[in-house]
Amino acid sequence: MHAPTDPTVHTHEATGSAIVTRFAPSPTGFLHIGGARTALFNWLFARKAGGKYLLRIEDTDRERSTQPAVDAILAGLAWLGLEADGPPTFQFTRAARHQEAATSLVASGGAYHCYLSKEEESALKEEARAKGLAFRSPWRDPDYGTPPTGASYVTRLRAPSDNTIIEVMDKVQGRVVTAGREIDDFILLRSDHTPTYMLAVVVDDHDMGVTHIIRGDDHLTNAARQSVLIKAFGWPVPVYAHIPLIHGDDGKKLSKRHGALGVDEYRRMGYLPEAMRAYLLRLGWSKGDLDIVSTDEALALFDLEGLGRSPARLDFVKMGSVNAHFIRLADDTRLMELLREQASQSGIDLSAIPDVILKAALPYLKPRAQTLPDLLDQLQFILAKRPITLDEKASKALSSEAIERIRRLRGELSLLIVWQHDEIKGSLDRFAGEENIGIGKIGPAVRAALTGGLAAPDLAVTMQLLGKQETLGRLDDII
Predict the structure, then answer these.
(1) Which residues face 92 on adjacent strands?
(2) How many other CB atoms are found less than 10 A from the CB of residue 249?
(3) pLDDT tens digit string along 407-462?
(4) In which band, very low, low, confident or very high, does the pLDDT at 67 lie, cut at 50, 70 and 90?
(5) 48, 171, 253, 256: which one is catalytic?
(6) Contact call for residues 242 and 48 (beta carbons, < 8 A)
(7) Helix, strand, coil: what percent of the chain each, to 5?
(8) Is 256 annotated in some ligand binding site?
């Protein structure tokens, strides 16, 4: 005989409901990269469908939930551009609604009050485990007995029979089957009438109108239990998509030693939010041969079918290359503002570089930068104080012969009226011709005199960015 399956129930997908997704972090720490990816997938799916993306702060663990963690989550989502459609829902404030829902389920027969002592419960659970069955309290039977006067009780779900088959059709994992004997009569309200996680999540998802639940596959085992509870309420079952967790480059579960940092740390490390969105997207989602997908492209292309079943691996090399791509695309005015913020955060004084110079430098510097600190490093040749400190290689380039040439070049440069790249390059080329040498004979020495060995762009560009007065002054110091 085949085991009976659950009665047919409507899903949000079947009823064609307007799409609503949610991201539901616990405020017990920072917004980590896995949570940020989950938020991104939910945000993209809702945005593409013209639906709603909601935020729920699951703060029922009062001992570990903190306001700084809430603030960090909200700040991280705001930086990533993943703000929700409306203010966040705080789960703890909804305890009365959770209690009301559990009470209604008792009235309809889907739940019951259990008066077992802890010792009785432990003994029955051991007995059930020994038989390979789920825990069932004798109090689920309405005729079991008269409740003890004044005794405390918990409220439990009346789980389906052992031979029931619970099916979850997951958009990533496929058909996931759970036997009824694996679903225990789990607690909905504790003895102090506070709601459990399982009850709160189901009630909140229903009340928020959530149609699609996209979350990590560490919640996959919860899906069967939650769907049983949802059906007990007679509510539509959300569409599930359980995505594999992110692993480190060694294939092991992501941890702090792999770089499982908070989103705020990536911001401090000089990554751009649009780059983080593009990188997180590729950690578990793909579309054909596309490599780097912008947010605008993702809003047109994202679908649940593109979610992979294998864990993605965090790769800082690839993250850097994706960030470099978006730094090259970034508007220079915005990049200048971000650079000044990064410098302030790093204790670097950029006040000596006017906006006009900083903005002019970016087109030359950003093609070689992966992060904002890389750009700051490339600006050091401008920030260097006179007299310039020479590294070993720069010192070797400044022979007595080279310094004499610099003396003569200094005179040529001082005659320039227009101090721009093309004019400076023309002067350098003319000088090399007059000296009957290639520019390669004078260039390294001039660069050494101007930068001391620090990274810098093309020589004429370097001079333009330093300005005529500073360029001649640095040459004078060497002469």
Answers:
(1) none
(2) 13
(3) 999 999 999 999 999 999 999 999 999 989 888 889 999 999 999 999 999 999 99
(4) very high
(5) 256
(6) no
(7) 50, 10, 35
(8) yes
What's the CA gap between 200 and 194, in Å, rounded?
A: 10
What single-letter DSSP state applies at residue 27? S
Give the torsion sign (CA, 25, 30, 33, 37).
positive
**Kind of pairing, strands 52-57 and 20-23?**
parallel
Residue 439: which of 419, 460, 421 has the closest Cα?
460
**Residue type for position 378:** Q
Q: Write the DSSP string, 283-311.
A: TTB--TT--S--HHHHHHH--GGGB-SSP
Give the mean model confidence (pLDDT) for residues 223-233.
97
Q: Is 256 a catalytic residue?
A: yes
Please give the DSSP secondary-structure letter assigned to residue 50: T
Burial 329-352 (b: 16+ CB within 10 A, else e): ebeeeebbebbbebbeeeebebee
Amino acid letter for position 299: L
Map residue 56 onto helix, strand or coil: strand
Q: Kindly report, residue by residue over 280-339, the tens digit of the pLDDT.
A: 999 999 998 899 999 999 999 999 999 999 999 999 999 999 999 999 999 999 999 999
Residue 90 is given by DSSP the state E
- What is the rounded distance in angstroms from the CA atom of residue 475 to the CA atom of residue 460? 14
What lies within 8 Å, CB to CB, of 417 at 6+ separation is none
| Residues facing 170 on adjacent strands | 174, 240
Residues 76, 262: contact at Cβ < 8 Å?
yes
Which class for 224: exposed (0-12), middle (13-18), buried (19 or more C-beta within 10 A)? buried
**Cα distance between residue 165 and residue 156, in whole Å:** 20
Cis peptide bond N-terminal to 387, omega within 30:
yes
Query: What is the reported pLDDT for 374?
Result: 96
- pTM (whole model) above 0.85: yes
Phi, psi values for residue 303, rounded to 5°:
-150, 160
H helices present in 315-467, as ranges: 316-329, 332-346, 355-365, 372-378, 380-383, 392-397, 400-414, 421-434, 439-451, 459-466
pLDDT tens-place string over residues 269-297? 999 999 999 999 999 999 988 999 999 99
Confidence of residue 215 (pLDDT cuts 50, 70, 90): very high
Question: In the chain, what is the straight-line distance between the N-terminal and C-terminal CA atoms, in Å?
Answer: 99
